């Protein structure tokens, strides 16, 4: 199977100033992006952010208003979809109901005039673990099996780029986890560039080696999942990819490798390497699992920073307990405490102190009008799509 | 049936299982009864009467009465006398069907897939002519195609028609009339099939290297097959038995088998001949339909 990678000519997928307008609505706004050959790339965003439109422009199902889609050095943006070395796994699968599974998988090969398809189809069906299902019709298969047929039907053509449009959206949670691992295995095996569109941040982080977070037609941030999570570039990313406690403050410049911040009357500092702004209005961010909760300030270790408040809620979720801590100025911070037996439970209604290591904090520029932000940006409901 | 059981109390006593299942088994037949009786009286009996009439002594007449002589010779006789009209019927109906497909398939496709909010209005337009009588519509075509009409004048002016050329009273006029009159029977079932066609399947086909023509041939056409088969049958069967179009838009040279049957019963009063021709037409249509269904692969239709 490694032979496949060598057979496809070298070529990164590059989107250059790609724009798509529907009337006065700009779905994709001057998007530029490079997706290295052979990578598993996730385009992550909420409903209506333009991610599906971007995918459809790569597939040729939507014509860009302006800009280029470059595969290697060739601009394919104006090629008809059937002339592109790109295949899609559709959200609805779009299997042909009148054809058998075998003929569904063979469809692309037959359209390109390839006569002997038996071996290839059999090999593909076994790659997606559907040996022996060739004679059935799509309607006789479960959702997960149909999903795998859709994958085999696209992969058999050995495209240079495989596009996946919310491919797991219609599956239940357990099957989705299983298919995530499966997809990752297959991608490693065939070495084709996968571009995966999803609204599910966990799915994107599990599978992709590069994630681009999209919002309102633009890329907010792009990078390895861990980098995005540990050091988000914008408040949107901080609260779309997981959850963050963002406190509105004012930065007063760098001194000695630290940026000094005043927020809600208290003084904090953040290492300069974790600051994306060092002057003016900023958001001081800390992830809930990086916060620790203790009963009083004298229990806070040396070199840590703290906020005091009142515990208003504690949800026990097994692996962790999720607390809400209402600060003196009214904002409720999220604190996730691992149930590792090392820390005592803090009762609801008690005064408590949340502290963190400054090296775990991060500093983002902030609009002057923006206040504290601690709630996650909601995912779209499963099944809906932009 | 629980429907008939008293429902006053919260928990009506369940009927004994045997009796209940017995009644349940009878129910479909009870539901069938009125329709079946209707068909038996108004279709089955006359059909038998007609079958008998087709075997009457051909030398009888209405005034002298007919004798039942099992005259199977009536059949070869009518074939010999009227085979041109029989062939012409299927020829005209076939030609009209081809025309109707060329007009109707794109029309049904456009209404089903591209019309958006105009869909219902366009459907009404397809059906609207049916609100007036078949006769009136055909008479309207007689006016449109008449020698003094604007259409013939225009065609003569641009030399598509000879100075003394005409449209009315030609095979063309009859085929045109058939096409027009039966088009909705083709379009409606086709529309129903194409309306259910998921456009994402066509996107998937083009994504999988199918050109628009291939996508049509491999996806649209097979998925519209049930509507296509139903529509062609609904078109072809009445069109091949029609006599109004040939009567009003043609001359005796364009007469179809329907005209011959019409005159046998109503003008020449030759009942055995009319009956024999009627049965012959039925048999021929059945043969065509079965041959067609066998070829069209009708798993999804029947």
Secondary structure elements and their pairing?
The complex is a heterodimer of chains A (386) and B (302).
Chain A: H1 3-7, E1 13-22, E2 25-35, E3 40-45, H2 51-59, E4 66-71, E5 74-75, E6 86-89, H3 101-111, H4 118-127, H5 143-155, E7 161-165, H6 173-190, E8 193-198, H7 201-207, E9 210-215, E10 218-223, H8 225-230, H9 235-240, E11 245-255, E12 258-263, E13 266-271, E14 279-286, E15 292-294, E16 305-316, E17 320-327, E18 332-338, E19 351-356, E20 362-365
Parallel strand pairs in A: 3-8, 3-9, 6-7, 7-8
Antiparallel strand pairs in A: 1-2, 1-4, 4-5, 9-10, 11-12, 11-14, 12-13, 14-20, 15-19, 16-17, 16-19, 17-18
Chain B: H1 17-53, H2 74-114, H3 119-127, H4 134-144, H5 150-157, H6 171-195, H7 199-207, H8 212-241, H9 244-249, H10 257-266, H11 271-296
Keywords (chain B): Cell membrane, Membrane, Transmembrane, Transmembrane helix, Transport
InterPro entries (chain B): MetI-like, MetI-like_sf
Protein name (chain B): ABC transporter permease
């Amino acid at each position: 199977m490694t032979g496949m990678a060598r057979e496809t000519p070298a070529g990164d997928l590059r989107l250059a100033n790609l724009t798509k307008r529907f009337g006065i609505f700009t779905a994709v706004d001057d998007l530029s992006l490079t997706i290295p050959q052979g990578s598993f790339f996730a385009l992550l965003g909420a409903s209506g952010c333009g991610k599906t439109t971007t995918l459809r422009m790569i597939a040729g199902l939507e014509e860009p208003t302006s800009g280029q889609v470059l595969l290697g050095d060739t601009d394919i943006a104006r090629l008809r979809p059937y002339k592109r070395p790109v295949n899609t796994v559709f959200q609805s699968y779009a299997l042909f109901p009148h054809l058998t599974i075998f003929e569904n998988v063979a469809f692309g090969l037959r359209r390109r005039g390839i006569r002997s398809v038996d071996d290839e189809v059999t090999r593909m069906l076994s790659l997606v673990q559907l040996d022996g299902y060739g004679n059935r019709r799509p309607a006789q298969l479960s959702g997960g099996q149909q999903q795998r047929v859709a994958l085999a039907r696209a992969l058999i053509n050995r495209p240079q780029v495989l596009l996946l449009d919310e491919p797991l959206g219609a599956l239940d949670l357990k099957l989705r986890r299983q298919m995530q691992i499966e997809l990752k295995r297959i991608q490693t095996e065939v070495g084709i560039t996968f571009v995966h569109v999803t609204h599910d941040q966990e799915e994107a982080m599990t599978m992709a080696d590069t994630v681009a977070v999209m919002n309102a037609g633009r890329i907010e941030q792009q990078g390895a999942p861990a980098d995005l999570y540990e050091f988000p570039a914008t408040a949107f990313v901080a609260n779309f990819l997981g959850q963050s406690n963002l406190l509105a403050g004012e930065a007063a410049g760098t001194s000695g490798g630290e940026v000094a911040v005043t927020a809600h009357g208290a003084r904090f500092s953040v290492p300069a390497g974790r600051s994306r702004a060092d002057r003016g209005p900023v958001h001081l961010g800390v992830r809930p699992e990086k916060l620790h909760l203790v009963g009083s300030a004298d229990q806070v270790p040396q070199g840590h920073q703290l906020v005091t408040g009142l515990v208003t809620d504690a949800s026990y979720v097994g692996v962790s307990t999720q607390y809400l801590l209402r600060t003196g100025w009214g904002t409720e911070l999220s604190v996730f405490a691992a149930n590792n037996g090392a820390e005592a439970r803090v009762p609801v209604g008690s005064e408590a102190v949340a502290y963190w290591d400054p090296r775990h904090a991060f500093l983002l520029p902030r609009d002057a009008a923006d206040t504290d932000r601690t709630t996650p940006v909601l995912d779209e409901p499963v099944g809906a799509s932009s | 049936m629980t429907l008939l059981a008293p429902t006053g109390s919260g928990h009506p006593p369940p009927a004994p299982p045997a009796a209940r299942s017995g009644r349940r088994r009878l129910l479909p037949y009870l539901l069938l009864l009125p329709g079946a009786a209707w068909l038996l009286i108004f279709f089955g009996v006359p059909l038998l009467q007609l079958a008998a009439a087709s075997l009457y002594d051909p030398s009888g007449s209405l005034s002298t009465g007919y004798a039942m002589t099992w005259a199977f010779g009536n059949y070869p006789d009518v074939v010999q006398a009227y085979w041109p009209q029989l062939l012409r019927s299927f020829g005209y109906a076939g030609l009209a069907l081809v025309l109707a497909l060329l007009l109707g398939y794109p029309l049904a496709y456009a209404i089903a897939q591209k019309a958006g909010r105009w869909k219902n209005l366009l459907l009404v337009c397809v059906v609207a002519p049916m609100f007036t009588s078949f006769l009136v519509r055909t008479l309207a075509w007689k006016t449109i195609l008449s020698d003094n009409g604007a259409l013939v004048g225009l065609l003569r002016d641009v030399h598509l028609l000879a100075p003394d050329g005409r449209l009315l009273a030609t095979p063309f006029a009859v085929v045109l009339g058939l096409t027009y009159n039966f088009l909705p029977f083709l379009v409606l079932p086709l529309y129903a099939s194409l309306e259910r066609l998921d456009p994402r399947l066509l996107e998937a086909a083009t994504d999988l290297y199918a050109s628009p023509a291939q996508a049509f041939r491999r996806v649209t056409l097979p998925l519209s097959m049930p509507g296509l088969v139903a529509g062609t049958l609904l078109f072809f069967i009445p069109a091949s038995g029609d006599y109004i179009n040939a009567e009003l838009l043609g001359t005796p040279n364009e007469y179809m088998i329907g005209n011959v049957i019409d005159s046998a019963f109503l003008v020449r009063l030759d009942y055995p001949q009319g009956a024999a021709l009627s049965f012959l037409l039925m048999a021929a249509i059945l043969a065509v339909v079965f041959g067609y269904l066998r070829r069209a692969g009708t798993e999804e239709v029947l």
